[in-house]
Amino acid sequence: MRSYQPDLTPPWKRSSPVPEVPAEPDLVVEEVSTGFCGAVIRCEKTAQGPTVTLEDRFGKHRVFPMEPRGFLLEGRPVTLVRPSAGGPARPARTASGSVAVPGARARVARAGRIYVEGRHDAELVERVWGDDLRIEGVVVEYLEGVDDLPAIVDAFGPGPDARLGVLVDHLVPGSKESRIAAHVTGAHVLVVGHPYVDVWEAVKPSSVGIDAWPTVPRGQDWKTGVCQALGWPRNTGAAWQHILSRVRSYKDLEPRLLGRVEELIDFVTLPD
Question: How many CB atoms lie within 10 A of CB 85?
């Protein structure tokens, strides 16, 4: 009979058990040795053992072995395991990549608001960040251009408990938009923007099934020019619905839009 051999490892050197978490698609984790953070794309069985492929928010893919304690979930170590055949019916993440909160009720609307420049911008923000905005109680409204923004800000009356965030198209140095933004930005107003002529361009071309967004000659309506260059019917409303239908999560959007929207959400929701 073998004699009992006590574990003489000091308590502070013993590895405590960590939970095993199925590597479901869209689960966002951080690999401990590299700090690479991304959403699960797929799991594969290899000769060296199971691996998981992660995609970060910029579209970069990395493959990692599914080693014990090899990942962080919500900042805590976990062991990723291959998911069962059935898998959960509910996604682990919202379209923006945030943790999904099943059954959460929409919060009563805050006094603060986010304004975007057009209807398409508002629909795109709702598509990706809608779940987050409802939980935070943030209402998104759209403007018909930025020329009247100073008057709109004055009428809104922003303050410490009613911050105003504004997302502007084609906010580049020296533009009309940049001059207006500088005029209204203050302690309780934040105006940010992306460099694209129209929010259509903020959708990755690969998500829409094209190689790149075409260059439209100056003076021509940009949306109409895009439809013409791509051989689409000259119905910009139908074209936008096609584009919007191809957006399923933050992965379908360009990083220069993602960062700006998240900056606005933080501005109107976080305390001073």
Answer: 5
Between β-strands 76-81 and 71-73, what pairing exists: parallel, antiparallel or unpaired? antiparallel
Helix axes 236-245, 119-136, angle to 10 degrees: 40
Contact 124, 148 (CB under 8 A): no
Q: CA distances (Å), 260 to each of 135, 187, 256, in order? A: 19, 17, 7
User: Given this model, what pLDDT does residue 10 score?
Assistant: 52
pLDDT in tens, 132-152: 888 888 888 888 778 888 888
Distance between alpha carbon 151 and the CA centroid of its chain, in Å?
31
Position 183: which residue type?
H
Please state at what angle helix 176-184 crosses helix 149-156, rounded to 10 degrees: 20
Q: Quick check: 86 and 55 in contact, CB under 8 A? A: no
Residue 176 vs residues 145, 168, 179: alpha-carbon distances, Å: 11, 11, 5
E-assigned strands of 57-96?
61-65, 71-73, 76-81
Alpha helices in 86-118 (DSSP H): none
d(CA 57, CA 51): 20
Residues in CB range of 56: below 8 A, 6 or more apart: 36, 37, 38, 39, 62
